[in-house]
Each structure stands twice: as C-alpha cells, then as structure tokens.
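Let's practice the habit of predicting before peeking. Look at the sequence and jot down your guess about where helices and strands might fall. Then scroll down.
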Amino acid sequence: MEFKFQDNTKVGLNEGVDLTKFLANRKAVQAQDIKNLFVKHGYNIQVVPGSFLKTFTMDAKEIHELSLVLEEIDTLEEQKGINLKQVFEANLSIQIFKRVFLERIKKCLNMGIPFINSDNSFVRALYSSSDFEDFVATMPTSEKTQVSEAPDTLDEEDSAVKYDILRELGKINENNDDGTLTFVVSSIIANLDNVIKNDNKNYRTLGTRHLIEGALQGISLDPVMQSIVDTQILENFPDQSLNVERGR
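Done guessing? Here is the structure:
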C-alpha cells in the first residue's frame, strides 16, 4: 500500500495498516526532505509502519533536532562498535528519534544495563520518563557498571588495546540481526575503558580475553546471553593465561 504526502513524496505502508487512520498526515509539505535525511544516514524507509508517518509532518525545528540525533546515532555506532542503527530501523516511530529517547539509550550504555530486548525491540521503559527513572532505580546493583577510581583517560598503549578489541567486536557484530548479541557487545563496550584502566597492563602477558570477561562482570546474563558470550565472543579472544601458567 502506498501513502502519498502533499508534496508528492511516497512511502509504502506495512501490510494490514488501516490507511484511514493516517489521512491527516498527508498534509506534510517537507516529507521529501525528511525522507532524504533518513536515506542520507543509511536507513531503509521504503516501507514503514503507520505510526511512523507522523515523522514526515515535523516542522523546521523538529527536523533540525532529527538531523542532530541521526548524526549522533552514527557517532555512537562508530565509537561503541555496535549496530545501533539497525535497532532503530527495526522500531520505526517518531518517538525514538527524539533527543530525550537517545539520551536514555546513552545512559543505559554508560551504566551497562539493557536497552534492547531479545527480539531486537527497545525495552518499554525507554518510552516514558517516569518508567525509565523507575527502571534505572530498581535495576539490581549487580547489573550496573561498577565504577572504581582510575585515571580519566587511557594512555597510548591502552588505547591501542581498546581499538583492537573494538575492531574485533565490530567484526563479531557486523551484519548482525540479533538484538541479544548487540546488547552483549554494547555492554562490553560500555565497561571497557574502566576495565582497561584498572588492568595495570596485565594484558601484556594475559592477552585481552580477561578484559572481555571483566567488562561483563556485574551484567546479569541469562542462559541465551551466556551462550552468545561463550560461542560468539570469547572464542575470538584466546585465553593466553593458560600459556602463562605453563611457563610459555
């Protein structure tokens, strides 16, 4: 089913959408500019849910905010090495591209708490300020990032180790459509700086596997997540501590 706006921009609608519920959105006059903005940032919006049509009715101020949010999502992907964009694309709605929604995701990343369900949907608490506050406040302490005193920045050697880990995690999560894997990878990345800072360069002899394991400390992993860690992540980071114990 094709939906046409006043400026002649066209998008497809998901099967089964009741077109009559969204006819008021046809008045949008900058729909093509908004569509082009999403395309520029690599989103596929040829077919969208009905609830996303309101996005095309944004005014100039809202379009500016959208542009900044899309740019920051790109930056987060690059910095964190996660496929965040595909999660946004899987949950298209006007609300998720608001600044406040992105800030909640960033807080989850920084605290190492879940923001994606196993079906690649965003956790419900992200959609409400009060629900999100309760979600964070009631999260067991063991699931929050354990912050200890450490230097504010990584030195050159630490940064090189971090880069290698991020590059490997990026390969693991490349073309991934599993929200659980994305969550595990994002949790590792959220805690990685702190783990490396406190490692005292033991990675020189032990390798980086223990850094991955350390970054997952305090994260509540269900059996599915633990299986992903064991079979898809840790196998890419050899356990060099065994060689140290054997004197090799």
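How did you do? The CA atoms of residues 165 and 208 lie 8 Å apart.
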